[in-house]
Amino acid sequence: MPICPECNKEFLPNKYNDKIYCSKKCLKNHWKKNPYKTLKIICVICKNDFKTNKPNQIYCSKKCLKKHLNITRQNKYRNTHPLLTLICPICNKQFIQSRNDQKCCSKKCNSTHYNKTHKFKYRETRLGTTKNGICIKITVNKRHYPTNEKCELCGTSRKNLTYHHWLIKNGKAYGLWICRGKCHWLVEVIDDNLIKLFRNKYLKLKKKINNEF
């Protein structure tokens, strides 16, 4: 039978035989008599003071720990994969790589280089039907994505533009890069010849409401 070092009484052990004190009271009394020393330590990354009971603690929070791990990983990667000074193939300027796969100095040069090397910006696989009604996968090539990232109808700059096509012929999708809001809705309405229907309905409802209201 184990003996409690605080009250000197015998007690029943645990399943794992790792119990030292007989009760929580004895454990609390032990911590009151022998408290941890609170230390002031400066964080390695953010350099702010923080209080801890652990003398080996270096970081004030998990964010600082993650930052330190990311820095060490980047340094290891840079030792094996160093950055190079290259000449841009479009504007012929020298630049230092920010990534190992970088080829051009800026986004504009990168987009023009991509459009020169690749005939089409996007290649898409779609389901098409033959005359017999059999489904077949068809690869469709789209036009170049605009370098200024602006809608080709209204001219507003948007990050994500949709491609509205009206004809697919010889593996090419003829269409425009348009913003996803009003422009895309208007173009679909025009292609489906629904403007006249909406206009006539709108005028009839307008007359009814003016007479009834």
Question: How would you describe the overall organization of this protein?
Answer:
Helix content is 32%, strand content 20%. With 213 residues, the chain is α+β, with helices and mostly antiparallel strands. Among the domains are: 42 residues, no CATH class; 33 residues, no CATH class; 73 residues, no CATH class. The strands form four sheets. The protein has a two-stranded antiparallel ribbon. The protein has a two-stranded antiparallel ribbon with strand order 3-4. Strands 5-6 form a two-stranded antiparallel sheet. It starts with 23 loop residues before the first helix and ends with a helix. The model has no long low-confidence stretch (mean pLDDT 81). The chain is built from five helices and eight strands. The longest helix has 19 residues. The radius of gyration is 35 Å and the shape is elongated.
Any descriptors?
32% helix, two-stranded antiparallel ribbon, two-stranded antiparallel sheet, elongated, 213 residues, alpha+beta
Summarize the structure.
The protein is of the alpha+beta class and 213 residues long.
